[in-house]
Amino acid sequence: MPQCVIIADDLTGANATGVLLKKINYNTYTVMNAERLELSKLSESDCIVYPTDSRAAEPSIAYNRVFNVAKLLKNDNILVYSKRIDSTLRGNLGRETDALLDALDNGAVAMAVPCFPQANRILVGGYMLVNTVLLHKTEAALDPKNPVRTSSARDIFCSQSVYPVGSLYIKDIMLGKKHLTDEIKELKANGCRIIVFDCISQEDLEIIADSVIESGVKFIAVDPGSFTATIARKLIVPSEKKSRYKILATVGSVNAVAKIQLDELLLAQKVLQVSINTKELVESEERREREINRVVENILVNCENYEICAAVGNGIFPENRLNFTEYAKRLLCTPEDVSNLINDSLAEITYLILSRNPDFRGIYTSGGDITVAVSRKFKTAGIRLLDEIVPLAAYGEFISGEFDGLKVITKGGMAGDKNAMNICIRYLKEKLYI
């Protein structure tokens, strides 16, 4: 049965959103002819997209069309209701949002994220920019049917909706998920039924989606498609999959760049992070084994509600970095041997997690030595290289070994800017759902 309903104001927008959902493995059904709609067919779909052809209609007519469709498709199994709006804010977005809220009649708040970063439509300070140009100075202002007179998304919603409208800005997103979650709750408590969010990137969409979910506030999504796809991915398991695929990131790099990249990932996406005490890995075989088992058990026990898990060597913090020369003298070996012992331990952690939970279908390794150790532990013959995500970050599949075909992204600890790890993990997510 469908778990996502999207009501769009035109067919082109409906299909554009449907394609975004199909890319992440959801069976999606666009209704072309309501009179011939067979409700029995809906059972085959994860998502239903229904265009109302209401963008240029009179506001009252647009309201009625959306209200009636929402009533028709309303179901207790639906996890995500979405009002698909134009990416340049044309049409009856305020009245149509009201219609969906009224039809559901459950006290939901409309989370309006009117951005489409992939098409260079972003919202900053409440104002929409299209290819860095204010919306009211673009071709959208000259649309003969639906001219846009202002670049303020909030002003458009306020002028069309009967409900109180609140706003959250880039500064709120920068303060992280907890702050954003608290702000959502506060606006809801103050009576806002529509909240308009600034948004300039996919990373922002991830933070907003996580914050909306964690707030516990009933919601509908109002956006051109990207936010709906982001939040659906977090809430809905495709019908053709029994469980949600997971990614394990094994981070052994101690480079400051890797620390910054990890921080950006934790800010942008929901991640179960477990720290590895690298000192325990070299003190003795008994302590090494105990630390490996602690990390593995922690991830396996707590990973159910996470798509991304990260096992991170605590040497990423300067105060925890080991003096390999001192340990080499104590263990009667070379500093390289000490490094290899740590790398092999991280590879052992990776191996045990994947062996015991088949939902892990992709891995990310940070640090060349870690990648070598993992490949050796997995007995792989090599990596079939398929793509470059960012410079010095490669995507591929393991060849042979115990995890033949496992999708992997490898990246040097110093490679990329602060968003590199986040971009790589998001890329791997998309590949797992194709």
Structure characterization notes:
A hairpin with a 2-residue loop joins β7 (127-130) and β8 (133-134). The model has no long low-confidence stretch (mean pLDDT 90). By secondary structure, this protein is an alpha/beta fold. The radius of gyration is 24 Å and the shape is elongated. The protein contains 15 helices and 18 strands. It has an eight-stranded parallel sheet, with helices on both faces. The chain is 41% helix and 21% strand. α2 (59-73) packs parallel to α3, α6 packs across α7 and α9 (256-268) packs across α15.
Topology:
Elements: E1 4-8, H1 11-23, E2 28-30, E3 47-51, H2 59-73, E4 80-84, H3 93-104, E5 109-112, E6 121-124, E7 127-130, E8 133-134, H4 153-160, E9 165-168, H5 170-174, H6 177-189, E10 194-197, H7 202-215, E11 219-223, H8 226-235, E12 246-251, H9 256-268, E13 271-276, H10 280-283, H11 285-302, E14 308-313, H12 324-331, H13 335-356, E15 360-366, H14 368-377, E16 382-390, E17 393-399, E18 407-411, H15 420-432
Parallel strand pairs: 1-3, 1-4, 2-3, 4-11, 5-10, 5-11, 9-10, 12-14, 12-15, 13-14, 15-18
Antiparallel strand pairs: 6-7, 7-8, 16-17, 17-18
Helix pairs in contact: 2-3, 6-7, 7-8, 9-15, 11-13, 12-13, 13-14
